[in-house]
Each structure stands twice: as C-alpha cells, then as structure tokens.
Amino acid sequence: MKDKKIIKSGKYKEQPKWFTLVNKFWRKTYPLGTKSVLTKESLMNAAKKTTGLNDFGTDFWEEPLEVMLKSIREEAQLHSIGQFITRQRIINLLSVRLRAEYYFKKHPEILEQELYPCMVIVGLQRTGTTKLQRLLASDPENRSVLSWEALNPAPINNDIKTGKERIKIAKTSVKALQYMSPGFFAIHPIEYEAPEEDVLLLDVSFLSTTTEATMNVPTYAAWLEKADQSSAYEYMVKLLKLLQWQRPGKRWVLKTPHHLEFLPLVKKYFGNVQFIWTHRNINECIPSFLSMVSYSRILFSEEVDQHTVAKQWVRKNGFMLSKALEYRKNDKGDVVFTDVLYEDLIKDTIDAVKQIYRDRGEPVSAELLASFEAENSRNPKEKYGIHQYELSDFGIDESYIRDYMASYEHFQTSLKK
C-alpha cells in the first residue's frame, strides 16, 4: 500500500516553487499596471460586463463590500496571485447576484416556493461536520448544496438543469487549488460534486467569515461582528429557493460553523430547523482549524504568522460558541437540537446518523441504512493524507484556549453525563 502523504501544520509556507516565482515576477511588473484592482466600482463594472446585466437587486447593501475591500487593501498584504484570486472571486460573487436577480424576475415562482425544512450542522470546524454532511446528503430525499452550486448558485448560459457551465468552472477551481496547495485536501477535502459549506451563499452578500478565514482583515472582522446579518440570511433563503427550483428535494442538509454565531437568524429565516451540533475536544479541533486557516491564508499572502492566526481565531471561536450557548440557554423548547460527539461519530458512524433521524421522529429504512454505509465506506478518514498539528506551532497552550472556551468545555462535560 502506498504511504499516505503527511501534512504538518508548521509546513504551511512550503508552497510549490512555481507559485513563489510567479508572485515574485508579477510584483516586479506592477509599474506596468498589472496589479489586480480591488475597488468597488471596478469590480461591479466588471461583473456587469461579464454578465451583460445591471440589476443587483433593491436589497443589495453595498457597505459590507466597501468595508471588506478597504480592509483587504489596507491590512491583508496580498501577494500578486492572492490579489488576482480575490478580484476574480468578488467579480464572480457580484455576477451571481446579477444572474440571480435576472432569474427572480423571469421566474417569479422561484421566490413563491416554501423553503424546505432544514437540517443544519453547526459544529465548530474540524469536528466531523464534513463527514456528517456527506453522510446525510446520501439520503436521496435530502438536498445539499454541492460545491459547484455553492460557487455559482445562479445558472450560467441557462444551464438550469445540467449545471454544465458551472461544473466546468468548479472543476477548474479544484484543479487550481490542488496545484497551488497540494496538502490542503488532507485538511479539508474539496470535490466539485460533493456537498460544500453554505457559508459561500452568504458570501454573495459580503457578510460572512470566509474572508477573515482566508486573509488578515481585522477591521472588517470587527465590523462584521457588530453588523446586522439579517439581509445576508434573507438573501441566502432566496438563493436556496433558486437552487431547489433547479434541483428539487424534500429537505435541506446545510453546514457551516458560521451559523453558530447566528442561530436566532437561522431559525427566523429558515423556519423548520433541526440544529445538529457536533462536539470535539477543543484541544484537538482548534489547532486543526488553525492549521487550516494558515494553509488558506498563504494562498493569498506571504505575510502569514501562525501566532497571529491563533490570537484571532481562538477568540473568534470562543465568541461564536458563547453566542450559540446563549441561544440554547434561552431556548423555550421549540427548537430541535441533536448533539453529536466526535468520538461517537468516529466509533459508530451509522448509529450517530440514526440518532439524528430519531430526533426528527423519522425511521431509517433498510435501504437508507445501506446508503449511509456505502457513503461511509467511500470517504474514509485520511482519504487525502494525514494531517498533523501541534498547539506549539501556534505559540499557545491549552490554558490559552480554555480562557476563551471554559463555558463550552463545561457544556461538553454535561453532554457526556
């Protein structure tokens, strides 16, 4: 058997040689006007030119985009490739909005639909959420947001039923990531036709934690925590309706840690919700996620420091958990919560999934059980390599994490009693 590749958190700066050379050469050509422009006007005009459309919708709030761009320009220290990727990504998000508005007008029945009931996985990063989402998505009646749909929920060239154009773009994106960061897939597998985090739908409103996970933007991150996220969730519902109009199902299986901070909004806008909260020892999942952030940020900037990453994201995760715990404390019993311990998910995966259905009051048929077992065998642990990480890589220790997450540790302990 071929030895699995080992990806170490402390090796995140070991980029392919071509990547470093391209950045070095590209930067030298900036005096010739080759630097990718990151201004609101330039990006919005590019999106309009790309799509041939002009209407971003009456509910488009420009301030989040403006704050994000200012923070990127002044704080993120992007290298040339990072600058280019960021420009293309934002143009795509604006283009999604333009195309979505076109379809909402052309097909008013899209927004007249009822949103499907939602199973929403809200555990912290690196707590088994991807594994669990893929398992639940193997139920033929469940509807997940596939990776190519998350990137482009609105049809391109009228590929409503096939997704042909959008799948092509997603395949190219996956290949590009493999070339730029071969080790990233051992941390977080990305497959163009597999379920992906729906936080990418919130990106269309420029109100999500994606940007602060991929680059150093403290001003934008601080602004985001105080901003009203209602418009982002309201628009996300529209995009989910657009997706279910293209490919129907019975219920949604959604997943992103971002929702931990906004459980009241999820309940308000999604309606019929079952929250599935995955839990893992914080001294395991936190350093794993910090490693993932380090590998993500080096794709955009050469100025990535793991201690800075730790200071930002340990506090941020503690804040997210505190908001979620506050919501549970005030819950009047009208919301379904299913808690899934990581060790239970790994030890007896199928039983963990069956518990989720029991909490919904739905039986698991023999056929459905077979689907879960088949999916579980297709995605073994360490499929793309072995991810190794140490707290010491980030200049912190367990007491540092506990300072921000003591209440959550106490809550975890109560679940095991």
From TrEMBL:
Pfam families membership: Sulfotransfer_3
GO MF annotation list: transferase activity
Protein origin, superkingdom: Bacteria
Keyword Kinase among record annotations: no
Matches recorded under InterPro entries: P-loop_NTPase, Stf3_sulfotransferase
Keyword annotations: Transferase
E.C. number: 2.8.2.-
Top enzyme class: transferase
Keyword Transferase part of the UniProt annotation: yes
Gene3D superfamilies linked to this entry: P-loop containing nucleotide triphosphate hydrolases (3.40.50.300)
PANTHER family: OMEGA-HYDROXY-BETA-DIHYDROMENAQUINONE-9 SULFOTRANSFERASE STF3 (PTHR36451:SF1), PAPS-DEPENDENT SULFOTRANSFERASE STF3 (PTHR36451)
Name of the protein in its database record: Sulfotransferase
Organism: Lutimonas vermicola
